[in-house]
Design a protein that fits this description.
The protein is mainly alpha-helical. The protein is built from one helix and no strands. GO terms for molecular function: DNA-directed RNA polymerase activity; protein dimerization activity. This is DNA-directed RNA polymerase RpoA/D/Rpb3-type domain-containing protein.
Length: 76
């Protein structure tokens, strides 16, 4: 979180920095010329793909835990 805003007297009392738990910020960088509109759309596609991968991995882990719990219950 940048505190740069506090260096400017004209923003004194106008800005409050805080964290919001269910939000996040991300930066997009590119090399070469890429129109901003297209760059943003491509970045969103990449982010969605990464979220999908994480979601699938989490679901797989949950299934593995469920299988282990079922086996442990059968052994008792």
């Amino acid at each position: 979180m940048s505190r740069e805003v506090y260096r400017h007297p004209e923003f004194e009392g106008c800005v409050q920095l805080a964290r919001v738990r269910d939000h996040f910020l991300f930066n997009i960088e590119s090399e070469g010329f890429y129109p901003p509109e297209r760059l943003l759309l491509e970045a969103i596609k990449v982010m969605r793909s990464k979220i999908r991968t994480i979601r699938e991995a989490a679901q797989s882990l949950l299934q593995d835990v469920s299988v282990v719990e079922d086996v442990e219950m059968d052994e008792e």
